[in-house]
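Throughout our pipeline, every protein is held as a single compact record rather than as scattered files. The record that follows is passed on verbatim for readers who wish to inspect the format:
___
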Amino acid sequence: MRVLGVDLGASRIGIAVSDRTGTIASPLTVLQRSGSKARDHQAIARLVADEEAEALVVGLPINMNGTMGPAAKAAIAEAEALATVVGVPVHTVDERRSTVTADQAMIQAGMRAPARRKVVDKVAAAVLLQHWLDGRAGRP
């Protein structure tokens, strides 16, 4: 099962993709927000089709104390809107610390800050997608 992971940001959207077995997530691309959610959603729908994804996983920015703040509510609303466009099931996954985890991994790999800023969104998308894939391991 091929799956796309989406890290929704205010100015950028990180996209990751799983391998065809649904085991390993890899960073794919970063989309710049266009100013129109409808255009952004169409761009994601094109990626779903191009990558032959069977599902979409959207990161849910739950507060560190486990509550749903405005950002999480906005992500749920956007995931629901995406579901009407992409043509595949849309799931959400807790993305707490995904950007921090991505940034730390790139620091350990020796990447400098300017290079990290260009890719952190798609790496964070891979982190949240991998978390979702791992949670499904062993399930049919």
Notes: The chain has a mean pLDDT of 91. Strands lie at 3-8, 12-18, 25-32, 55-60, 90-94.
